[in-house]
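Hey, I was hoping to borrow your eyes for a little while. No rush at all, and the record is pasted right below.
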Amino acid sequence: MHRRAFAFSLGYDGGVKLRRVYPLIIGFVVVPAAMMLTVGILILVFGRQKQDYVFGTLILALVATTILGTIGTLVVLYREAYVSRLQTDFVNKVSHDLRTPLTSIRMFVETLQLGRIADPAQEREALGIIAAETERLSVLIARLLDWARMESGKRSYDFRRQPLGPIVDDALHAMEPQRIQSAAQVRRDVPDDLPMVYADRDALSDALVDLLQNAFKYTGADKRITVAARGVDGSVEIVVEDNGPGIPGADQKRIFEKFYRGKDPLERTIEGSGLGLSMVKHVVQAHGGKVGVRSELGKGAAFTVLLPASEARKP
């Protein structure tokens, strides 16, 4: 798919960029027009003897508006260039992620079509690879579509009053294949007597899976991960903690922004699109909660999700 068409389908153009132009319109059109109207009214009110004073004030105000408008323009242009670069990086990464399984599928399908695999065992292995790559492709596309729905405000949730334990168990169960491939010590500390939460089970479980996947990806060979929960003043706090290298303070401030990935070159070699934590934030906020991170370099990271207990939130 053409990159621009792909970007448009994910909502990068159109209204998004138009909203970024609004500050410029306000700074250079609306404000000066309002000031001219004000000056006209002042002249009518005070008469011609106050013209010099009024026009002097107008000139000073226009100079100040021009300076502020120029600064605002530079800020908007800088942010536009920054977001554009992040979007380009994202499209490049997603294009690569889509191309990789497609290449494998095409290669094995062509090999099977040409009859180059005579051994039934090897044929089953090839079909297994095709099935796995197809599943990988489906998951990636579903994730992109889910994120697009979030961005457009069309993501719907099925909120129900329910215990937190089964939601955490769903997330841990979804991580089992990854744990088989890479051994990890995962500790679950979720008391049975926690307050109920008003949540969409699938959406909240997916958000916890994102946090667990990050913990798996960014820890070394000795993976130690804890999923804990506790009641806190009418809320329920979930913590996903790991023993990884930690997150620099500068990255902690922006880690939940869409497309953002850490500046560490080693981290950038790890697979990811930069959407996971942004999607976690969106889901948690839809539940009326907050998400944050605590980390020190060399001492791992702890992601916290704070959700209101069901008694504190009405359907």
